[in-house]
Amino acid sequence: MLARQTNQLQRFTQALSYAVHPILVLVDTPSQIYDWLSENISSRSALLEENKKLNTESLLLKAKLQKLDVIEKENIRLHSLLESSFTLGEQFIAASLIRVKLDPFSHMVTADKGSRYKIYPGQAVLNADGVIGQVTKVLPLTASIILITDPNHAIPVEISRTGLRTIATGSGHANQLNLPYLPHNADIVKGDLLITSGLGGLYPRGYPVAHVSTLTPAVGQAFMYAQANTVAKIESSRELLLVWSQQQPIPLLPKNIEEPLAKPNKETNNAP
Amino acid sequence: MLLRPSETAVIVTSLFFSMSLSIVALPDQVSQAMPNLTLLTLIYWCISLPHKVSVGTGWLTGLFVDILTGSLMGQNALIFSLTAYLSHHAYPRLKHYTLWQQSAFILFFLITSQLFTLWLRKLGGHFEATYLFWISTLSGALFWPILSTTLSFIRRHYRLA
After folding, report:
1. Is A96 found in the same domain as A26?
2. pTM of this prediction exceeds 0.95
3. Final residue of a domain: which of A15, A36, A71?
């Protein structure tokens, strides 16, 4: 009964999940109603103000994006000169959290989109600030997401300042990660930003994960003890972004340079 | 004349209601110390309607809880059927006890089921049993009189055997 974690029971589980879905909807209803009410009751001036703020923000982001477009093109060109492949342009789908707590002893959340939206296990989940977790279980109408703070979860990261790669595991506490594999001579200081390194292929490269918060060199131990606070706060927003990162790399541009450039000495940071 | 729903309808409704109560989003500490309401409801029906509810119902309920909470398939099914067996085995005595004496027995059932949960979850991966994990059995036993009174009120209201 326990050992059948294979695909044999998948159809059965999916069928039964339709039966329990009403429970999820029922439990989520009060918070939906609350959101709806606060949306409808908020005053005109507050709405106008919010609109103004969003407009400003959109303008700023657009201005940044203009520059980013050029940089992206340049990056592809440079990568093709180095003859390394480059992936780009992940696709996103937005989903909302269903406000339920299925298992009090693990860090899991539930999203309101499932396999009907072609969501697959292992998909990376972000919000507006940074990485939140990955999809573990997909049912037709919902998907379970394990947070990066779950003690059973580990995420490959690199320090954006130095490029040092390491692994961050969940601590079991809200918004906190452990960095158990840092040697004593690692170049890391408090406040360093950790970004996804793209190793392992699940998380796309370059999304912010956490800021280093404490560094304690443990005497007599092989590794130092470090903790980090996650950038994305799960309790702050209800919106999620699911990323499709399983894409073919963009093919290399045709070679139009006769002699390859001298290879730079430092290691190439190409995406896998 | 009141419309009389069948026994099955009342039992199924109460089990589904307790399931939905147990997944309401609460702060971590609170939800870890919360009693397992579905299990308590199942125990109640096992004691009061033993001809209707027993191990089979326990297994089915556990299966639904498994799918709802996305835990290992069969984990809760095993625990629920075990608890259903225990309470079904003890119902002739439990029926005549006072509420607090029943509570003591329920505490024993809940600890047994929690031990099994601990064992199964340790097999499944990293799991740390905090003291809150054990407090939930105690809170379950303390909650038993309330739940039992409520459900027997419902039972009398619908005049179930």
Report:
1. no
2. no
3. A71
